[in-house]
Amino acid sequence: MTQEAHVTQGPLTTEAGAPVADNQNSETAGVGGPVLVQDQLLLEKLAHFNRERIPERVVHARGAGAYGTFTVTADVTPYTRAAFLSEVGKQTETFLRFSTVAGNLGAADAVRDPRGFALKFYTEEGNYDLVGNNTPVFFIKDAIKFPDFIHTQKRDPYTGSQEADNVWDFWGLSPESTHQVTWLFGDRGIPASYRHMNGYGSHTYQWNNEAGEVFWVKYHFKTDQGIKNLTADEAGRLAGEDPDSHQRDLREAIERGEFPTWTVQVQIMPAADAAAYRFNPFDLTKVWPHADYPPIEIGKLELNRNPENIFAEVEQSIFSPAHFVPGIGPSPDKMLQGRLFAYGDAHRYRVGINADHLPVNRPHATEARTHSRDGYLYDGRHKGAKNYEPNSFGGPAQTDRPLWQPAAVTGATGEHAAVAHAEDDDFVQAGNLYRLMSEDEQARLVENLAGFIAKVSRDEIAERAIANFRAADADFGKRLEAAVQALRG
Ligand code: HEM
After folding, report:
1. Binding-site sequence positions
2. N or C: the chain end with fewer CB closer than 10 Å?
3. Cβ-defined contacts of 33-36 (< 8 Å, 24+)
4. Strand partners, 131
5. Which residue's CA lies nearest to atom 24 of ligand 1?
6. Domain check: are 224 and 306 in the same one?
7. Is the C-alpha dihedral spanning 161, 57, 219, 421 positive or negative?
8. What pLDDT is stored for residue 4 in this prediction?
9. Ligand 1 pocket check for 355: Cβ under 6 Å
10. Which ligand 1 atom minimizes the distance to the CA of 63?
11. Name one GO biological process term (predicted).
12. How much distance in Å is there from the Cα of 15 to the middle of ligand 1?
């Protein structure tokens, strides 16, 4: 009997499996009298209903997911010993959850916001999660600023709405955001669907090969559907008419057998290059220009199966940047380092200590063999096996081989800012991005920014925000200032 037949055939029952006589009328003391506590079915239904929700993700609450396949198309064994990347043609099952960032669970999809691109590879050496976005960079470069940043994107404690004052106050006072904000208010800031956008690992990660050599890598997932975006007006209409537009588009495309694909590329930097590179290679507000490290194609990602149950497989799915496999590891990027803590902590709070036992989260191509036990909703999977190590009963033991190579460090502990390399400042890459845009795109960028900046209540907040774009490019600043003045009068 299939699982579905198991729960749909036969009489209706209580949670404990007893047959239900009447699911329409609760039990009362006499005709027209008060309801009885002995009506277990009523109590159980009301109590279960009250507990249907778990806390939504504090960011990226709104999302959609699909399973798929990753296929290796190039030999990357000179760079990494990761088993799932070991052979051309090798395939690995994946699960990808797309999301928006700021909106709550029920928010509309067609909004100006980065899109999450969280990808789980179910590899034979454990699950490898690459928890990225559709943007190659981010607003800030130190995890200590993340809660403050997100507070400005979410609802204001007094008004209960997102406030232009908070957003522009923070961005204006955090000039390192200028690059990502320029990106976000450009044409790619509102993708037409999850299928029509790229994904990026964004951070720099470590790859290490059999010989122990280290490479720094950045991942790119280039959509094979082509980039398609919405204008601010189109998005405004669509968000009202079809709030679930992205989620529906993804599900329906897969139902039609139109499986979306992405070409997977990496930029690879030999470890020895890092110290003298013109930009700090671990600064998340910067890209590595392709002329410096050309992207190399390494694989194909296809999404080909919808989840059967959104709550079980999408809402309860967990992704962590700390889920590495042998041959892949973190870089010293200060944002990434903060994320290595934040996600596991969020999962323990949001889904519970045994979240990684759920079907969508557990390894599919190997077994998890830990000595951790028990906790809420533990299913007894380890039966009577010993729960400590070392043990003399044939239990799982350590391998003595770390997943990644050690990183050299220097100096004293302290609250150090990210190191500035020769060409690093907060504006250089934002200016380059602006100058890369066509005249039409620049005009739309200025209009999108001005429309939002014009809403702030204080001139000094608007002026500070504009000054950052002026520092990126004088023409950009001049046009933006004029556009904001025209709107503010
Ligand atoms: C230090 C900075 C950051 C912190 C502390 C942070 C924290 C979090 C937390 C707590 C969640 C919710 C996790 C859950 O409940 O399952 C989350 C989700 C997410 N974050 Fe971050 N985040 C940071 C930066 C970033 C960056 C830079 C990216 C992309 C490059 C990113 C991409 C995502 C994605 C895609 C999700 C949704 C994962 C899913 O679909 O379940 N985050 N983040």
Report:
1. 343
2. C
3. none
4. 118
5. 339
6. yes
7. positive
8. 66
9. no
10. 40
11. response to hydrogen peroxide
12. 36
> How many structural domains is the chain composed of?
2
pLDDT at residue number 222: 98
Q: Is the CB of 202 under 6 A from ligand 1?
A: yes
Nearest-angstrom CA–CA distance, 243 and 110: 7
Model-level pTM?
Answer: 0.97
Helix H or strand E encompassing 477: helix 474-488
* Type of residue numbered 203: H
pLDDT the model gives residue 483? 98
> Do 94 and 234 have their domain in common?
yes
- The H or E element containing residue 252 is helix 245-255
Among the three residues 357, 391, 406, which one is the final residue of a domain in this structure?
357
Q: How many CB atoms lie within 10 A of CB 383?
A: 5
Task: Note the pLDDT of residue 13.
Answer: 96
What is the domain range of residue 437? 140-173+425-489
Shared domain check, 320 and 255: yes
Q: Token pair of 294, please?
A: 């050309």
pLDDT of amino acid 5: 64
Q: Is 59 in the pocket of ligand 1 (CB under 6 A)?
A: yes
- Residue 284 to residues 53, 77, 279, 430: CA-CA distances in angstroms? 34, 26, 11, 13
Low-confidence ranges of the chain (pLDDT < 70): 1-6
Q: Which helix (H) or strand (E) holds 180?
A: helix 178-184
CATH of the domain at 164: 1.20.1370.60
Per the CB < 8 A criterion, the answer to whether 315 and 237 are in contact is no
Same domain, 296 and 431: no
What pLDDT is recorded for position 8? 78
User: For residue 464, what are its two tokens?
Assistant: 């500070």
Distance between CA atoms of residues 236 and 195, nearest Å: 20
Q: Give the residue numbers marked as catalytic.
A: 60, 133
According to DSSP, residue 356 is labeled G
Tokens of 247: 């989620």
Tokens of 344: 């596991």
Structural domain contains residue 482: yes
CA torsion sign for 214, 367, 376, 320 is: positive
pLDDT on residue 2:
52
Residue 224 lies inside a defined structural domain of this protein: yes
Residue 60 alpha carbon to ligand 1 centre in Å:
7
Residues near 345 by beta carbon (within 8 Å), at least 6 away in sequence:
none
Q: Give the pLDDT confidence score for residue 1 in this predicted structure.
A: 46
**Domain boundary residue, one of 333, 357, 381:** 357
Substitution site in 59, 198, 337, 361 for ligand 1 pocket (most atoms within 8 Å of beta carbon)? 59
- 226 and 196 in a single domain? The answer is yes
Q: Does residue 375 lie within any of the structural domains?
A: no
Measure 280 CA to ligand 1 centroid, in angstroms: 22
Contacts of 151 (CB under 8 A, 6+ apart): 166
